[in-house]
């Protein structure tokens, strides 16, 4: 079974930086996207950044220019470098890996347990 384990969460002051990492284990096809979502208290879960095996990436407008997502296909890891953090970035951050296609019998969508990021003023 696929497991995703996040690390790197913590508490920082506004303007600081954190780097999150997610390591995947188990078997899943290579045609996938790995990325990060977050959920703040009382808010919907939202996409933060995602990157495909081919290197195509997408970011939420709220983090564009501040966060950078990267991955290592061989190691099955995805990282999120977060700079210029603001209080509104406070949330639980979840690692995700999913197949690129959903119209497929073997489609999958896996989630990590989440890691807390807290940014204080």
Indicate the low-confidence ranges by residue numbers.
Answer: none
- What integer is the average pLDDT? 95
* Major sheet attributes: 7 strands, mixed
Radius of gyration: 14 Å
Structural classification: mainly beta
Q: Name the helix and strand elements from N-terminus to C-terminus, one letter apiece.
A: EEEEEEEEEEE
* Count, helices: 0
The 3D shape can be described as elongated
Note the beta-strand portion.
Answer: over 45%
Give the helix level as a range of percent.
under 10%
Strand count: 11
How far apart the termini lie comes to: 40 Å
Structure description:
The chain has no helices and 11 strands. With 121 residues, the protein is an all-beta fold. Strands 2, 4, 5, 6, 9, 10 and 11 form a 7-stranded mixed sheet that branches. A 4-stranded antiparallel sheet has the order 1-3-8-7, with no helix packed on it. The chain is elongated and about 45 Å long. The N and C termini lie far apart (40 Å).
Task: Please provide a brief summary of the model.
This protein is mainly β and 121 residues long. The protein is 0% helix and 54% strand. It has strands at residues 3-7, 10-13, 18-25, 32-39, 46-52, 57-59, 67-72, 77-82, 91-99, 109-111, 115-120.
